[in-house]
Every structure is written in C-alpha cells, then in structure tokens.
Amino acid sequence: MPVLGHLDLSENEFSSEVSSKLGKIESLVQVNISHNHLTGALPSSGAFLVINETTVVGNDLCGSSFSPCKKFKN
C-alpha cells in the first residue's frame, strides 16, 4: 500500500479552512500549504504538530504552534 509522507499543496489558490483530516494521516510527516487563501486554525495533530512558518506563509492561519493567531506574509 502506498504511503503519503510529503504533501505539497502550495500556490494553488485554495481557499477555506484546512481540513482536520489532514492531521489524521499518520504517515504524513511534512505539509506545505503556503501561498493559498486558507484561513482559520491549523489541525493540532500529525504533521501539523511540527509545521514551520515557511510552509504556511501567504495564508491567514493560526494554531497551537502559532499563538496568538496572526497573518503570515512573505
């Protein structure tokens, strides 16, 4: 069975909130969602526990690693 370890969704003009289902993918170790139009809180599990600012820049997100909520700009 294939395993998803890295997911790059950057620069796709996605808008909405980040699905909590992404945080439940156990094999996922790195997520890049930078430069979209995403809002709200990041999932507080899985790969999102160790996410860094460069992988979320260009969105209006917040989460356990980024408190209080702030806009990440480049």
TrEMBL record:
Gene3D superfamilies: Ribonuclease Inhibitor. Its main location: membrane. The keyword Magnesium does not apply. The keyword Transmembrane applies. InterPro entries: Leu-rich_rpt (IPR001611), LRR_dom_sf (IPR032675), Plant_receptor-like_S/T_kinase (IPR051809). Keywords: Leucine-rich repeat, Membrane, Repeat, Transmembrane, Transmembrane helix. It is found in: Membrane. This is Uncharacterized protein. It comes from Hibiscus sabdariffa (roselle). The lineage of its organism: Eukaryota, Viridiplantae, Streptophyta, Embryophyta, Tracheophyta.
